[in-house]
Amino acid sequence: MIDFRYHIVSLGAVFIALAIGIILGAGPLQNAIGEKLSGEVTSLREANNKLRDTNEQLEAKLETQIAAFSQAAPSLTKEALQAKNVAVVALPTATEVELTVVQESLQAAGAQVTGVVTLTEAWTSAENLAYRQALATQIKEYVSKAGEDTEANKILSLALAQIARLGVKDEANATLTELFVNAKTPLISLESGLETKAEAVVVVSGATADLAKEKDAQVVAAAELTTELFAQLASVVAQDLPTVLAGLAVTENDPVLLVRAKEAAVSTVDDLTSEVGKLNLILALTGELNDKVQHLGFAEGAQAMVGVKSELPAESESTENPSNTEN
User: Which of the ends of the chain has fewer CB neighbours closer than 10 A, N or C?
Assistant: First the structure.
């Protein structure tokens, strides 16, 4: 059994140690500790000021480079698409920001935007699957490139490409457009135009959901399927017309990245709203008009940060291009 005096001695030792610590902290060690801490604080403050100054210098340098790039870019894109008719297909994720960038960039390059088609959520939603399958069966006879065994989503994509290529004045396309737009469950909204035949298409994507922290398996599966269908759409349209899929590619679940991963025959551009992205959009499209597939930008799968300008093919060559002829 432990003697009571043992507890007295232990407790006394604790108080003595505490007293010694207080005496040393307030006396001989006080100045040394204070000076050391003060020196470390001063050093950290100086390092922080240096980092802040460096950051400000880098930001100023970046702004200058962007401004210089903005001034130089028009010389590369001016009249690069002169007199070319380009249709714009907006995925549901595309916002007014991305659409404005695309249209202004095309027009600055001399292109004529034939119209803007915006896909609705019904194009990919699981609850509208049966409807899309029924509609695909109904419109198959109006889609010249649809075969007997062509699956529903591909038929819809082929129909959209046909509308863009031949315009809404085409008899079959007038019917397709009416079914797409005026149906009980519209798959597209048509803001303007498409009365003129398009020679190329830009498919515009916006920001997609980041699935890295998503724990709901059904949500993940639905989002991945949506991306898959958008990538398929771009690939199918590219079989009919020179096509560029342009977006932001800020998450892994992005149609731009999926098209690149699948090595589909359609050009892609990421970081669309940046000055580099605007330039790459035009360079990728001129490349497509010369049967050249490019993946431009900074995201995974990009072949180059900035594309190379391609001269438009001679008019005689353009008119002979099978993708620009009527069926």
Answer: N
Between the CA of residue 108 and those of 91, 101, 276, 278, what are the distances in Å?
Answer: 23, 10, 15, 10
Alpha helices by DSSP H, listed for 252-326, are 255-262, 275-288, 315-320
Cα gap 135→140, rounded to integer Å: 8
Sequence-separated (6 or more) residues with CB below 8 Å from residue 306: 276, 279, 280, 283, 296
Distances (CA, A) of 239 to 162, 265, 269, 288: 11, 8, 18, 11
Cα 307 to Cα 277: distance, rounded to the nearest angstrom: 10
Pairing of strands 85-90, 200-204: parallel
Please work out, in degrees rounded to the nearest 5, the angle formed at the alpha carbon of residue 231 by the alpha carbons of 164 and 176.
30
Q: Which residues contact 313 (CB under 8 A, 6 or more apart)?
A: 289, 290, 321
Query: For the segment 115-156, what is each residue's pLDDT rounded down to a tens digit?
Result: 999 999 999 999 999 999 999 999 999 999 999 999 999 999
